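queue> pop job 88
queue> type: inverse folding (structure -> sequence)
queue> payload:
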């Protein structure tokens, strides 16, 4: 029998008391601080906005005074009131609570501790989010939060549960940091070799993209989301697959290049990417056809390395027109040299992608493991009634939430 099982058997043999959150917790809603006083100066007061809840940190600061009524302290639980209802613990310096965020903390830490509340409230808010329908943006209200029923095992049980679940979260954080560092190192190594291999001198002839690839843009067909019929064929847009549809318009191996969108400038994701087999492409990605795999991959690697800013118009939004795409100069080394370069970069790309796919898989496995034990550890039977007298719960209160009296 585990330590937790021993504690539950000893302290909660007949189940635990459930209470409304409002009776055991304080709930403080944020204030609409004047955005004119927001700053990026870390010497000012940290200000927690709704977008900061998910990450548990902020880059927004406030030039006013520290209003005690809206101060968030280390350990306080934060909840985003709109959208995904993100929940987190604040682990930084004292900060101010902005509108659309609330903080929750125990009224009496002899009844409930904040660490237990944190692990307990996550799945409860997720259930609330899923239950709210008929609205584009979901909103939490005071009445919903205050009426959440929570179990209250005795403090030794709460502390043991927090110890177990905190260990899971720490291990997940360590794994994420380790794998992310490894991925960063591999990407830097890949970029170094890519830049070295694709830097050509005057001895290599230059052509234009329009002369080495066949452009198939005229065959593209955009379909609005409401008119798409769901299916198994990838539907591509400017940055990759955006949907799956029931039909296809291309069948083969192609290089797609973003035609418009902010990513043409930001380059957060590759703007050139291979698309294979039966696919549908809308009018936000150029479609290029090459004679061989080597030529297609060589151009893909090259386009994702070079600066294309002079070919991108930004009048309304960033756009790479077909005319400008065709004008992009590209090197034309021998086929054998292209083959050698592609083979090297494919190996590096595989190393990075293997870890990229493995990283989310590892983190997801840890997250599921945490959620499994969290749900198992935080599921308690309510105090049972053995007769009209309603005997006192182990916490010293009767079932139903009233004080036990002698």
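queue> result:
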């Amino acid at each position: 029998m585990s330590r937790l099982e021993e504690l539950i058997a000893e302290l909660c043999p007949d189940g635990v008391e459930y209470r409304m959150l409002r009776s055991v917790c304080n709930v403080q809603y944020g204030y609409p601080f004047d955005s004119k006083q927001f700053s990026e100066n870390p010497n000012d007061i940290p200000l927690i906005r709704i977008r900061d809840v998910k990450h548990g940190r902020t880059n927004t600061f406030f030039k006013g005074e520290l209003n005690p009524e809206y101060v968030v302290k280390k350990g306080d639980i934060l909840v985003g009131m709109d959208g995904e209802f993100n929940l987190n613990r604040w682990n930084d310096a004292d900060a101010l609570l902005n509108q659309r965020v609330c903080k929750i903390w125990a009224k009496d830490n002899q009844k409930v501790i904040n660490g237990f509340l944190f692990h307990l409230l996550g799945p409860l808010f997720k259930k609330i989010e899923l239950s709210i329908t008929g609205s584009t943006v979901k909103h939490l209200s005071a009445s919903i939060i205050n009426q959440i029923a929570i179990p209250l095992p005795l403090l030794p049980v709460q502390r043991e549960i927090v110890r177990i679940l905190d260990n899971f979260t720490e291990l997940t954080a360590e794994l994420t940091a380790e794998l992310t560092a490894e991925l960063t190192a591999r990407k830097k190594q890949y970029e170094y070799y890519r830049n070295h291999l694709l830097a050509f001198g005057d001895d290599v002839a230059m052509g234009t993209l329009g002369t080495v690839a066949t452009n198939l843009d005229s065959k593209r067909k955009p379909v609005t989301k409401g008119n798409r019929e769901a299916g198994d064929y990838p539907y591509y847009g400017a940055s990759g697959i955006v949907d799956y549809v029931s039909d296809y318009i291309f069948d083969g191996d192609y290089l797609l290049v973003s035609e418009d969108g902010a990513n043409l400038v930001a380059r957060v994701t590759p703007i050139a990417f291979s698309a294979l087999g039966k696919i549908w492409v809308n009018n936000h990605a150029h479609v290029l056809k090459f004679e061989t795999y080597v030529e297609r991959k060589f151009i893909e690697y090259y386009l994702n390395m070079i600066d294309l800013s002079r070919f991108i118009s930004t009048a309304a939004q960033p756009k790479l027109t077909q005319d400008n795409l065709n004008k992009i100069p590209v090197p034309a080394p021998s086929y054998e040299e292209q083959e050698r370069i592609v083979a090297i970069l494919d190996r590096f790309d595989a190393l990075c992608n293997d870890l990229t796919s493995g990283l989310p898989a590892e983190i997801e496995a840890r997250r599921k493991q945490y959620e499994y034990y969290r749900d198992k550890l935080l599921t308690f039977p309510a105090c049972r009634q053995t007769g009209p007298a309603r005997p006192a719960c182990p916490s010293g209160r009767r079932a139903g939430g009233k004080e036990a009296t002698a």
